[in-house]
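Subject: for your reference before the review

Hello V.,

The reviewers asked for a structural picture of the protein, and I figured it would be easier to keep everything in one thread rather than splitting it across files. Below is the amino acid sequence we used in the manuscript, unchanged from the supplementary table.
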Amino acid sequence: MLDTFLYILGILIFLVGIAVSVGLHEVGHYLPAKKFGVEVRQFMVGFGPTLFSKMRGETEFGIKALPLGGYILMSGMYPPATKPHRGLFANWINEARAEIAAQEDTEESRKFYQLSAPKKITIMLGGPVMNLLLGVVLIVVSLSGIGTLQNSLKVDQVYQCLEVDSAGLCEEGDPLTPAALAGLQPGDEVVAVNGELVTSWAQVTSRLEDKASSQLTVLRDGVEQTLTIEPIFMERAVYDAFGNLELDDQGNPLTRLTPVLGIRLQGVTTPVALDQALLFAGTSMIAMASFIVELPAQVYQVVASTLGFAERDPFGAVSIVGVGQLAGELTSADIGIDAKLASLLLLLGSLNLVLFVFNLVPLLPLDGGHVVGAVYEGAKRKIVKAVRGTDPGPIDTAKALPLAYFVWVVLIVTGLLLILADLVNPITLG
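And here is what came back from the structure prediction:
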């Protein structure tokens, strides 16, 4: 019952964190827009039906039913047409422009399209930059303020055999583990290996790797005891200081022969240096950018695994539902409160870095698409002024509506496919 409560609590904490992240993203757009005098008519967190809203000045602030994003609605997103648009989507574009224009009675100087290109870029980058700052802060607090979960030197559990049945018991005739044969007990704290003092479990394993038989000095009830242990060597995956699986140049997991004793160690949160936390944030952003480039292939793999044609990649794409499930598993895991908090902050920090990188994709309706449009507009106006001596005015962003809607459809379909996969074939921490 308690595990279920903690699981649900983790999901709720995650949803609140998502809502705060989305809200701050929109604050990053809202503040420069107001600074530049643009009328902001709506500030909404979420999509779908409005659950709550309140007018403050000229802006309606509200929360919508689906916490999967947000938006601010600025006056003058589409400039008035200089001539009727013609083409395949002419009626669609003209009707959308007319509908929005009919709702706006703002003076021309306060409309978004009247801004210079640098001001438009500042407004559009404000949201992603807010996610970048929030992501880095959360990661630094998680890794340097609280710490990562590392193995301590104290034994938490001693296993009697390496393989157990469904009830967790050894079968008759199974050999005992090295720890059981040596007489290790829960609560023992390893202080030395072969007479050399140790301060981390990494030192213990490195000093056990060279010998078939070693002397462990343990502290038991305040008294030192020396035990003889003969570890078993097995191929195990290699993880870095942040718990990430290390890969070779071909992307395959690195493994090495590791001494296995047959114990579980007590965990302890150990803060990492600030520069290491910042390095982790930087390398995470690079990895996320690469991941987004590979997203179509990732989605294909997820769909194939959902249909039973392949195994699901535990490091592949997940939806917001999948990330929420991981948050629930973290809060219900058998680790300390500090480790749970650090893991949740790291999860939310990483998600904010995803929002930063993803929103920079140069496609409408993402912020990166608006930035590209502003850069193009600024370059065009400068060139035309230099050549013809006249200002051609702002570009007609309404013409990009078909592309924006197409991208929206792709994003929605992709999201639904990932959600289905997370419900049918979820990725778990185990």
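For the response letter, the relevant points are probably these. Residues 2-35 form the longest helix (34 residues). The mean pLDDT is 84.

Happy to draft the paragraph if you're swamped.

O.
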